[in-house]
Structures are given as C-alpha cells and as structure tokens.
Amino acid sequence: MTQLSPQIDRAPGAHVPVACWSCQKAAEGLFCGACGVVQPPGSADHFARLGLARGFGVETAELDRRYFALQRQLHPDRIVKKTPRERAVSQSQAASLNDAYETLRDPLSRAVYLLRLQGIELEPASGQTISDPALLMEAMEMREALAEAADDQAVQAVAAQVEADRKKGFELLAKAFGASDTARARTQTLRLKYLTKLAEDIRGRRAAMRAAS
Ligand SMILES: [Zn+2]
C-alpha cells in the first residue's frame, strides 16, 4: 500500500493566494477575506474555478449548483454601487465562470479540455482531417449508409445507430479517463467529435427533407 501524504496537496491549477489588488493582503477565491473586494479570475483551471475535482466524471447537478451559487455572488445588483474597477473585475470573474461552466457542462468539450490540460491538443492546425485508420473506415461506412438512405425512415435508422455509437463512445471515454489511459481517451474523443458532427448533419438533413415534403 502506498502511504498517503499527511499533507493535503494543492491540486494543480487550484486557486493560489495572491495579494489582494485593493488591500494587498493574501486573497484567494472570488472575494478578499480581509477587505471583501472582488478579486480577478487569476489562472485557476476550469475545475478549480468551480470547486470540482479534475476529472471526466462531473455530476451535472453538482456543476450547476456550484456555478449558480458563484454567479449569484457576482450578480450585477450586488456591485452596482461599487467602483468602476470593482465592476470590471467582477465582470471578468463572471466571464471566466461562464467559460468554465460551458466547457465542463458538455462532456465532449470537457474531454477536449481535460486532454488539453494534459498537453494533448486534438485539432491539427491543418483542419478536420481524420488520420486514425479505424476511425476513417467507420466514418466512411457511416457516410455511405447515410448517402444510401433514401427516405426519412432510413435516415432515422442511421441516426439511431449514430446515437447508440455516441452513447457507447462516452462510456468508453469515461473508462479511458478513469484508467488514466490518455491515448485511448484521445482516440475516443476524436471519434465522439466526428459522431457528434455527423448527428448534427443528420438532424439538418432530416429538417431539410421535412421542409421539402
Ligand atoms: Zn483585500
């Protein structure tokens, strides 16, 4: 058994105390503990900003609860009588919280972000090309099935298959992150990006078919 460290290690990217811009005392989090003035967003990662452990398994209800509790503290009504600088700092805090919330709420963007925190960028500079041979084959088969689907019922069948593949894909992704298997997480995230785009295309195509009939 590995001996657990008696000290609580600060998570990487967590809020680190910095000098309050107003009173110069050490401050961390949204407000200075000494003078109560709102603090700038700083360099905390999205998970730390919302007080969540870094990982793929985020409970949506918990994420919502933390986000809305923090946003309430920054409500414009609370800072309307403050100085222009405090209002500006509060707005940048609110923007950072929105960014964190939107990134973490969607499982796919959460996965992309988690990989980025580990130094893995998914988007090649050149664009949307698929380089993984297995994924390329799967993508071609899906596109072929969609091209051959003559009526709405057939398109719906392809859509159902894509949804089933996405659901399974997210389960595999959670397993990969749980096992710290970054290579597998990367492959599965790329696959899910493709499947999600395909599902959007199918929705668009069905809407166009309905409009035309
Ligand atoms: Zn202060």
Overview of the structural elements:
This protein is mostly helical and 213 residues long. Helix content is 61%, strand content 2%. The protein has 8 helices and 2 strands; from the N terminus they run ββαααααααα. The protein has helices spanning 46-49, 60-73, 76-79, 84-105, 107-117, 133-148, 152-178, 182-212; strands at residues 18-19, 26-27. A two-stranded antiparallel ribbon has the order 1-2. A hairpin with a 6-residue loop joins β1 (18-19) and β2 (26-27). The protein starts with 17 loop residues before the first strand and ends with a helix. The model is unreliable at 1-10 (pLDDT under 50). The structure holds zinc ion. Zinc ion is lined by residues 20, 22-23, 25, 27, 32, 34-35, 37. Residues 20, 22-23, 25, 27, 32, 34-35, 37 line the site of zinc ion (ZN).
List keywords for this structure.
disordered N terminus, two-stranded antiparallel ribbon, binds zinc ion, mainly alpha, 2 strands, 213 residues
